[in-house]
Amino acid sequence: MDAIRVHRLRKEFQVQQNREGLGGALRDLFDRRYNQVVAVDDISFAIPQGEICGYIGENGAGKSTTIKMLTGILVPTSGEITVNGHVPHKEREQFVREIGVVFGQRSQLWWDIGVIESFRLLRKVYRVPEQAFNERLNELVERLQLGDLLTRPVRKLSLGQRMRCELTAALLHNPKILFLDEPTIGLDILVKSEIRDFLLQINKRYGTTILLTTHDLQDIEALCSRVVMLDDGRIIYDGGLDELKRDWGKGKELLIQFGQPCSPERLRALTADLSVTWEAVNEFTLKAWIPLEQANLTEVLGRVMTLAEIRDLRVLEPNTDDIVKEIYQTGAGKHV
């Protein structure tokens, strides 16, 4: 069964067109003009239960608008949405008990009271039985190391501490689906790693479905087996990370350590017809760039092994950041 199903989802906004100058401002008071902006343009996708899916795109691509429709904050212009069997904007009260939401730049915690008091208020909002709440809270406090933070006002927490508390707040009622909108924005590397590990544990233990939007593609690499990519309100890629690298990556880097000194000139001559480029790291180690459209790894290694003894070998996979950047810069993506 799919946790999330979207069919031909569309969202349009009316944006006022302002005239220039004081005279234009006066005219706008009596004769307003509007432009129609399409933020999400007839997209369709489905996310099975228990999947962690990355939802990525540049600013203005339609990510946050989609999340707001999936969580019932916005009403679609047209199309169909079901989230855990509910239509979000029509079955609001029952629906919100089964989802958790974390917006990286907004808080669901009360700013001037202790963290634990916010958690207790949320227990009443979600109507969680007290015993189930205490058991869940104790587990989350232990996993996210919140023991010293519970009595502090939210305004006195660091960004990393607040994000751990936001995740706890979103998971207190044990939701089946978790929506994360930029959950690691502004965090240092250590805190990001802790949050990623925690999300993987939650997904594995409870089968929680997670939809993640982020500009940090390291989050995608660490958490997601699948990525949906948006551009100008439309889906341009929907598939696995491995397929993304295979289909859009231009090649692979190869780092080879030889048993004796080896010059890049000899290797260039050996692989000239394959368009492989060679760069010397030191006299024993060389780096090769293998264009996928010209050669494969096995063929290159077969030739190199006839020339010199190989002591060590590393294959450097295409970088997801670079691939996504290339797709947007060249407009190479195709709407799906």
Name some characteristics of this structure.
336 residues; alpha/beta; Rossmann fold; Alpha-Beta Plaits; 6-stranded mixed beta sheet; 4-stranded antiparallel beta sheet; 12 helices; 13 strands; globular
How would you sum up this structure in a few lines?
This protein is of the alpha/beta class and 336 residues long.
Q: How does this structure look, described?
A:
The chain is α/β, with parallel strands linked by helices. The chain folds into two domains: 2-245, Rossmann fold; 250-317, Alpha-Beta Plaits (2-Layer Sandwich), CATH 3.30.70. It has twelve helices and 13 strands. The protein has helices at 21-30, 63-70, 92-96, 115-126, 130-144, 159-171, 189-206, 217-223, 241-248, 264-270, 297-304, 320-330; strands at 2-17, 33-48, 52-57, 78-83, 99-103, 177-181, 209-213, 226-231, 234-240, 251-258, 277-280, 285-291, 310-316. The strands form three sheets. A six-stranded mixed β-sheet has the order 5-6-7-3-8-9, with helices on both faces. It has a four-stranded antiparallel β-sheet with strand order 11-12-10-13, covered by helices on one side. Strand 6, helix 7 and strand 7 form a beta-alpha-beta unit. It is globular, with a radius of gyration of 25 Å.
